[in-house]
Write a structure and sequence with these properties.
Layout (H helix, E strand, L loop, with lengths): L1 E4 L10 E6 L2 E7 L6 H5 L14 E3 L5 H4 L2 H6 L6 E4 H31 L11 H7 L3 E4 L4 E5 L2 E7 L7 E9 L2 E7 L22 E5 L10 H17 L4 E4 L5 H15 L3 H6 L1 H5 L2 E4 L1 H12 L6 H8 L10 E3 L3 H7 L7 E4 L9 H8 L6 E4 L8 H6 L4 E4 L2 E4 L3 E4 L9 H9 L7 E5 L3 H15 L3 E2 L5 E4 L5 E4 L6 H33 L4 H6 L3 E4 L6 E3 L3 H10 L9
Parallel strand pairs: 3-4, 4-5, 5-6, 10-11, 11-20, 12-15, 12-16, 13-14, 13-15, 16-19, 20-21
Antiparallel strand pairs: 1-2, 1-22, 2-3, 7-8, 8-9, 9-10, 17-18, 22-23, 24-25
Helix pairs in contact: 4-5, 4-10, 15-16, 17-19
């Protein structure tokens, strides 16, 4: 049995693992890289394997960093099964077409620039229709059932407690009369995530591939988290500000609704109601069509909720509904939120602030010292969300520099990922401990901390694999570099070259516009020189540029690095 690590290596996104055994090749996850431009460019690179040689795929859950390149697989000819839970299939049916729509929007924006540069347009990574078509190869299975994929390959999906339908996958492979068992955690949840059951504890494994997103940190406990949330929101609303919550459409949005339901529906006592009167009256908007659709899927799969939540539902209270909650589907409804003169709570995607309606809400509220931007999920390096959390004072949104004057808060406990304590508990829970552990899906610093704890406290060998490394799961655990590694230096060099090339093209483009405008209006030379708002000379154009002229305003915008505004 062999495992080749082709994503989520010393980083948090791009989950993709190639497994070979019993004469078969199969994948565990095929997710998108998310973060800065350098990370996302990896999505366009060719797969490190022949798509036609893949016999089947196992999908841990629906989040795009685990599922987002499946339509690319499909587009390139893959037609074998994607085996996953029913809830994951249901969520992918809305998330993958939505991802395709985003890809189409992004490439449309890039192609406008390429057209000005005289370059041929590029196709999107995949389209919304590709996302829809991909669903035909999804094969749903139930939790806790051992499924025969092949006479020598068996799998079982167990509740990972990370999000609706998320799974820890056990894989048994028989070769040469010997059985090897590998366990892939996908993303592990905490023990106390609202709505969801606790992660399943696995009894035995020969090899464990485990996530490590929060390997170096501990989450805030539920009571502390709820009180902090309550205070941040109420203090902002009392000042007349707006609370903007960038939230992942699937998972975190539903948790926040659950929290607000507790605050608005279940709190008793006149003192509480008096102290938090503004919060109790404030409208709550879920401004994300994807989040709205995902919430409906959560309701349809309520049988997967934990016992406490199911008891609440049976009592007649829906934990995802409460007075004052409103859903905005259309672009016009979304725009209207920023025109209202009211204190409110706006929950909007995307969670890392890279695409979607959240960028418009940030543009309207980041500058306001009375408002709060409340982050409740992981922010990948290079993303707009990460830059704001890290304390940047000015950020560019749609080509416009926005001052960060709003209150910035980050409640880490709302993450769907297990913290260090629960990752360690998961490893401790094995009755028969793994021979070896591979840490993936984490940043290097946190991974090293977690590795040290596992080695020191449990005494198990741990490896943090590099991209493209293949491990043969034998007694000696042999490793070879089968795919060329992706080094940061290579990415930086490529990024610098691309930026230089883009700058050169922009300058050439700007020179051409100015020249053409000058030649077309040379009879109005006197008017050009009479303007007092002269800002300088451009290229070989032998004359001043005037901001009163439309073309020159365009030139100045280019000099400021103006970008086209994205559509809703």
């Amino acid at each position: 049995m062999k495992i080749t690590f082709l994503g989520a290596t010393k980083m948090v996104t791009g989950s993709n693992f190639l497994v070979e055994g019993a004469g078969k090749k199969f994948l565990v996850d095929c997710g998108m890289y998310q973060g800065g431009d350098r990370d996302e460019m990896q999505n366009h690179e060719p797969f490190a394997y022949d798509v036609n040689e893949i016999d089947f795929m196992l999908l841990t859950h629906a989040h795009i960093d685990h599922s987002g390149r499946i339509p690319k697989l499909y587009k390139e000819g893959y037609r074998n099964p994607v085996i996953t839970t029913k809830a994951t299939r249901d969520l992918c049916s809305i998330m993958l077409p939505d991802s395709g729509h985003i890809q189409e929007q992004e490439i449309e924006w890039r192609n406008r620039k390429r057209k000005r540069e005289g370059k041929e347009p590029l196709p999107p990574l995949y389209t919304a229709q590709d996302g829809i078509d991909t669903m035909e190869i999804f094969k749903p299975v139930n939790y806790d059932e051992i499924i025969e994929i092949d006479p020598n390959i068996y799998v079982r999906f167990n509740d990972a407690g990370h999000m609706l339908g998320s799974a820890i996958i056990e894989i048994w492979v028989k070769e040469d009369g010997k059985e090897t068992k590998a366990v892939f955690t996908g993303d592990l949840g905490n023990n106390d995530i609202p709505l969801l059951s606790s992660p399943t504890m696995i009894e035995t494994a020969d090899y464990l591939v485990m996530e490590s997103t929060y390997g170096g940190r501990l989450h805030m406990r539920n009571d502390d988290k709820a009180n902090l949330f309550l205070n941040i929101v109420s203090e902002t609303l009392d000042k007349g500000g707006t609370v903007v919550i960038p939230s992942f459409a699937v998972g975190r949005t539903q948790e926040i609704l659950y929290e607000l339901n507790n605050l608005k529906d279940t709190q008793e006592g006149e003192d509480f109601k008096k102290k938090y009167a503004t919060l109790m009256k404030a409208p709550v908007y879920v401004d994300s069509p994807l989040a709205i659709s995902a919430t409906e899927i959560f309701k349809e799969n309520a049988n997967l909720f934990d016992e406490e939540t199911q008891a609440v539902i049976e009592s007649g209270d829906n934990p995802l509904e409460f007075p004052g909650l409103q859903f905005t589907r259309t672009a016009d409804e979304s725009k209207a939120l920023n025109e209202k003169n009211e204190s409110s709570i706006i929950i909007s995607a995307s969670g890392m602030c890279e695409v979607g309606r959240i960028k418009h809400h940030l543009k309207h509220h980041l500058w306001d010292p009375n408002s709060t931007i409340l982050f409740v999920g992981y922010q990948a390096p290079g993303t707009l969300g990460r830059r704001i959390v890290d304390g940047e004072k000015r950020v560019k949104i749609f080509g416009e520099e926005i001052a960060v004057n709003a209150r910035i808060e980050y409640i880490e406990g709302y993450s769907g990922h297990a913290d260090q304590e629960w990752l360690m508990n998961f490893v401790y829970s094995f009755i028969t401990k793994p021979k070896h552990i591979f840490l993936v899906h984490g940043e290097p610093t946190g991974q090293e901390i977690l590795k040290s704890k596992i080695v020191d406290e449990i005494g198990l060998p741990v490896t943090i694999p590099e991209y493209g490394q293949t491990y043969t799961l034998d007694e000696n655990l042999t490793m070879e570099q089968t795919v060329a590694p992706i080094t940061p230096q290579m990415n930086v060099r490529r990024d610098v070259i691309d930026k230089i090339r883009l700058l050169k093209n922009e300058l050439n483009d700007m020179e051409t516009i100015v020249k053409e405008d000058y030649l077309a209006k040379k009879d109005n030379e006197e008017e050009n020189f009479s303007c007092s708002r002269v800002i300088g000379y451009v290229g070989c154009f032998d004359g001043p540029v005037c901001l009163s002229r439309p073309t020159c305003r365009k030139v100045e915008e280019r000099n400021r690095g103006s970008d086209e505004s994205q559509e809703f």
